[in-house]
Amino acid sequence: MILACSAAAACSAIDIDFAAETGLLYPTGQWGKSLNTGVDAGLFASWIVNPSFRAGLGFSLSVFGSSDQGAASLTFLKPQLKAGYYLRPWGKVFNPGVVCAFGLSRSSLSNSGGTDPATWDPFWKIGLRWNFSLGGGFRGEIGGDYSSIMAETESGDVFTLRFGIAREVAL
Amino acid sequence: MRWLAVPAVLVLILTAVTGCSRNPLFFRMGAGYYPIDHIGSQWEYSIDGGGTLIVSVIDQTEKGERACYRILSGADYTYWIANDGYLEFYEDHRVMFNGYEVPLYQAWVTWLDWPLTTGYSRTDSASTFAVNQGVTISHDWRRTSIVFGIETSPDGRWEQCYHLRQNETTINWIRAAGFEPETTIVQRDIWLAPDVGLVARVTADSSLTLVEYLQGN
Predict the structure, then answer these.
(1) From the list A30, A32, A114, which residue is nearest B117 (CB)?
(2) Interface size between A and B, measured as CB pairs under 8 A
(3) How distant is the Cα of A94 from the closest Cα of chain B, in angstroms?
(4) How far apart are CA B40 and CA B17, in angstroms?
(5) Which of B8, B23, B121 sits opposite A114 (nearest CB)?
(6) Residue A159, strand partner residues
(7) A1 — pLDDT class (breaks 50, 70, 90)
(8) Any idea what the Cα angle at residue B98 is, between residues B94 and B104, rounded to 5°?
(9) Closest CA to A24 of A162, A156, A157
(10) Looking at chain B, which residue has its C-alpha nearest residue A155?
(11) Which has the higher per-residue pLDDT, A139 or B10?
(12) Following DSSP, what letter does each residue of B115-130 receive, concatenated?
């Protein structure tokens, strides 16, 4: 919010990109051996600095379940700063881009009536996007992210298949 | 006003870096807290009051129509199945009656679900009977496992251990004149260390402490 307010104050009229994202998460590494594929949802607001570059903030919420008969669940809540660079912002069908994000992740694990202490750790994310027009001022986006939660001793790395929808608004 | 954005971002980054927890959640999730799936692994325990106990993973075999690992613990064999999400143990409950060993309950029962968490709780039970020499023997069994927390082992050697308490109650009753229900209650405090397994076990009459662990293939 601080960034958004600062940015808003800096310009008399700015273009903001509001985006909603969802995704399928695949843990990489041993930490995910007893978990199933996760799901993710997030909301973001980004300042369109120029047609190619945008930066903003948002948060996402991810949930994993047990891979077998268990009752385990792992959740991530990730407030984050995000930036994206797109190569063909005028492209209606094909506008490739790269995104990166940095923030904090609150990881919480529960299983069979128990809960481990929640942990706050920094995380980063980098991804590729295929952005395209959906008409009516909306744009769609698909892509993949690789993210890593930098917890003590061992990081929590995840590959994500990402789907999103966005609308640009002039404020 | 645009310059405000830069310090705001720096403050956020600084908060992220300095505010991170000292809680290796992903390490615990990735660790094997009962790694019985390496043939040749061996645990050597010292027993309070003298003596040692050697536990070793002997081989893979079949028990109850399931492929499993056979473990030699002292002079006894036990049977385990290591799944990704849970660990199963072959419960083999028997009772001696008139000089005969009577099987009462044989089944694969989930011992623990992974990942463990503080406050985790699991209860398993069975109620069955067998008829031997014309006499009915009833058998009631109940085991509750509760994780108390993440601790260092009692000897201070192993960190990030899950402290587990198991309460196991067995009631065997020979349904004949002159016999009363025979109740056995056992409470075990167990410490499971990451990628090592059981490092300490305390019951009312014995304490085990891991002296050496050799991982097999």
Answers:
(1) A114
(2) 154
(3) 31
(4) 43
(5) B121
(6) A26, A146
(7) very low
(8) 20
(9) A162
(10) B26
(11) A139
(12) SP-TT-EEEEEEEEEE
Find the distance separating the first CA and the last CA of chain A, reported in whole Å: 15
Query: pLDDT value at position B15?
Result: 57
Angle at A22 between CA A103 and CA A40, to 5 degrees: 60
| Tens digits of residue pLDDT in B98-111 | 889 999 999 999 99
Q: Rounding to the nearest 10 degrees, give the CA dihedral for residues A149, A158, A57, A144.
A: 150
Q: What counts of helices (H) and strands (E) characterise chain A?
A: 1, 9
Distances in Å between the Cα of A152 and the Cα atoms of A121, A131, B23 are 8, 35, 6
Which ipTM score applies to this complex? 0.87
| Backbone φ/ψ region at B178: left (φ over 0), alpha (ψ -120 to 50), beta | left
Q: What is the DSSP string of B31-71?
A: S-SS---STT-EEEEEETTS-EEEEEEEEEEEETTEEEEEE
Q: Which residue of A has its CA nearest to B9?
A: A3
> Does B44 score more than 50 pLDDT?
yes
Q: Write down the pLDDT at residue A71.
A: 86
Residues 101-120 of B with CB under 8 A from A: 110, 113-120
Nearest to B110 by CA among B69, B139, B140, B145: B145
Q: Is there a contact between A111 and B19 if contact means CB atoms under 8 Å apart?
A: no
Q: Calculate mean pLDDT across residues A87-116.
A: 94
Residue B18 has pLDDT above 60, yes or no: no
Pick from A35, A103, A112: which is nearest to B120 by CB? A112
pTM of the prediction?
0.88
Task: Write down all domains in chain B, each with its CATH number in brackets.
Answer: 21-214 (2.40.360)
A72/B25 Cβ within 8 A: no
A6 pLDDT more than 70: no
Provide the CB-side half-sphere exposure for B5 (13 A, CA).
16
In chain B, helix, strand, coil percent, each to 5? 10, 60, 30
Q: Kindly list the structural domains of chain A, giving each domain's residue range(s) and its CATH number in brackets, ordered by start.
A: 2-9+16-170 (2.40.160.20)
Closest listed residue to residue A42, CA positions, set A28, A56, A27, A26: A56
- Inter-CA distances, A103 with A47, A131, A149, B11, B27, Å: 17, 23, 9, 12, 20
The per-residue pLDDT for B1 is 43
